[in-house]
Design goal:
The protein contains 15 helices and no strands. It is mainly α.
Length: about 375
């Protein structure tokens, strides 16, 4: 999510220096997202790959959503922030919610594929969810116990099959606790999980998670990790919904903390790519879908360990390229359109600019 304008998922103070840790975390999380999508057509033939897929899905989106919540702490209904929400989240949602079905019509020869702004397509659910979450931020900052309330809503959603698919509200509600948790966190909480002791503990934790994932492959429906269905829709008793929401929340938090402990805090070669994660997220879906529509994943050699490793590396490389500055410049019109023509001028903002302009000459004179 690019500069020089504010990233779509951040609402910090303009001009504030970017924190390398968060950019590193976002880049690494988006690489895992792309790899996970590339594993979906292959994992049925490999229990080990499906175990890795399960573990990654337990924490990669929760980690991304926690960061999104953390950088939404200052969001309010100020006009300039609402404008950024519209141009950085709502407009890309409309554009890509239209583009993905059109892409399927052409590449998959599906002329009857419908276009619906109410039914998020593939990756666009996150933009829809982020828009809703951020609009509700003032409420979560107002209530006394925001996280327990968000968990209660998520548990209620998990037993409510009648919610339907409109705006992917199941995901909006079931992933909500991670966003609210991000709103409640402070910088020192991230520093706590980045201690050396946590990094050491993270090794056996991830090893145990992989072992449990391998054991759970034939015993558990991995759709639980998508948070897009109620318990009844997954063929489970209703009471499994709240239990799984709490269990997965606990597991995801542990794995997310372990993931954060391994994220470098200093500038790395990929740090600047953290500003372009929205580009990598939304654009890599076209390549994954094209490969699926064209049957590229059907080649038998890809369903063996070397083929799976190659696909994994290719997915990481592709999403890395899609986060780079040239790609950002090419698609900024869609991700961060400048739409001054669409908004009324904010009188308060204009007054602030006038005051700043008046103060500059005075500062020069006094200097």
């Amino acid at each position: 999510m690019p500069s020089p304008r504010k990233p779509a998922e951040q609402s910090g103070t303009p001009g504030k220096q970017r924190d390398a840790f968060f950019d590193n975390a976002k880049y690494l999380a988006i690489v895992l997202v792309a790899m996970g999508h590339s594993w979906e057509p292959l994992k049925a033939d490999s229990r080990i790959l499906e175990a890795v897929y399960t573990v990654v899905y337990a924490f990669h989106m929760p980690a991304f959503i926690v960061i999104s919540g953390f950088f939404s702490r200052s969001f309010d209904m100020r006009p300039d922030r609402l404008k950024r929400l519209i141009t950085g989240v709502a407009v890309p949602y409309v554009l890509f919610e239209t583009a993905y079905p059109l892409f399927k019509r052409v590449i998959d020869h599906a002329p009857h594929q419908e276009i619906s702004l109410l039914d998020p397509w593939y990756l666009t659910w996150f933009l829809c969810a982020l828009f809703i979450w951020r609009l509700t931020t003032p409420i979560w900052k107002l209530v006394r116990h925001p996280l327990p309330l968000a968990l209660a809503l998520a548990m209620l959603a998990s037993v409510s099959p009648n919610i339907g698919d409109d705006l992917d509200l199941q995901r909006v509600l079931q992933f909500l606790p991670y966003f609210v948790l991000g709103l409640c966190l402070k910088q020192e909480h991230f520093r706590l999980v980045r201690r050396r002791s946590v990094r050491i503990v993270a090794v056996p934790v991830f090893a145990a998670a992989l072992a449990v994932g391998w054991w759970a492959v034939p015993r558990m429906n991995s759709a639980w990790f998508f948070h897009r269905d109620s318990a009844q829709e997954l063929g489970a008793p209703w009471w499994c919904g709240p239990v799984m929401v709490l269990a997965l929340f606990g597991c995801s938090l542990v794995l997310t903390a372990c993931f954060f402990s391994w994220v470098p805090g200093r500038r790395m070669w990929f740090t600047s790519l953290g500003a372009g994660t929205l580009y990598g997220y939304l654009l890599h879906g076209f390549l994954v879908k094209a490969a699926d529509y064209r049957g590229w994943f059907d080649h038998a050699w890809l369903h063996h360990p070397l083929g799976e490793i190659l696909v994994t590396l290719l997915a990481g490389a592709v999403v890395t390229v899609l986060c780079t500055k040239p790609v950002q410049r090419m698609f900024r019109w869609a991700m961060e359109p400048r739409m001054e023509w669409a908004f009324k001028q904010d009188a308060a903002a204009l007054a602030r600019e006038r005051r700043k302009a008046e103060q500059r000459p005075r500062e020069k004179v006094s200097a």
